[in-house]
Amino acid sequence: MKFPVWFAGTNEEARLFTVTMRGVWRINTEPVWLTCRVKDLQVCRRFSPRFALYDPLLRKDMVQLNSEDDRTVAQSRNDGYHRRKDDRAVAQSGVVVAVVVIVAVVVAVVVVGVVVVVVVVVLVVVVIIAAAAAAVGIVVVVVVVVVVVVVIVIVLLVIVVVAAALTAVEV
Q1: Other CB atoms closer than 10 Å to residue 17's CB: what's the count?
Q2: Per-residue pLDDT tens for 103-152?
């Protein structure tokens, strides 16, 4: 009677093991499934603590199998492990795509909102400048507009520098 033994090592470690043990075979995928005779089990465990007599998917002791069924059962459990691992990867990539789409939509809405606000502010400023020019004269209006523009540019530069510093601290 043989036990199917799950080996959590690499294929290379399994290859070294199969050279040192007679009557042990492996499947060339990871995690590696081996069979080990009951009398060789202690040798298996001495070779590597990563040998275990349990199903890593079900987390419970495996039943004894006859030698004919060992290879089939081990391969089917191995295939199931990889299938579930692939399903998890696909699900995780779907979540990443959803988050990226949501962030892109939020950024687009914010950008459109900022553009609309800037256009409205520019139109209001143009109307105010035209009215002021008609009332007090063009020279006074030009001086006031230049001062206001310089103040706005300085405030925007301060905001950009502070935002860059905060971003650098977060990263």
Answers
A1: 21
A2: 888 888 888 888 888 888 888 877 787 777 777 777 777 777 788 888 88
One-letter amino acid at 24 equals V
Q: How far is CA 138 from CA 25, 125, 143, 150, in A?
A: 94, 15, 9, 18
Give the structural domain span for 38.
2-92
State which amino acid sits at residue 113: G
Quick one: 137 and 67 in the same domain? no
What's the pLDDT score for residue 169? Answer: 62
Please tell me the distance from the alpha carbon of residue 110 to that of residue 132, in angstroms, as a whole number: 33
Domain count, the chain: 2
66 and 130, same domain (yes or no): no
Q: What is the pTM of this model?
A: 0.31
Same domain assignment for residues 69 and 115:
no
**CA angle, residues 68, 23, 62, in degrees to nearest 5:** 55
Q: What is the pLDDT of residues 36-86, one digit of tens each?
A: 544 454 445 444 444 444 334 433 334 333 344 444 555 555 555 556 666
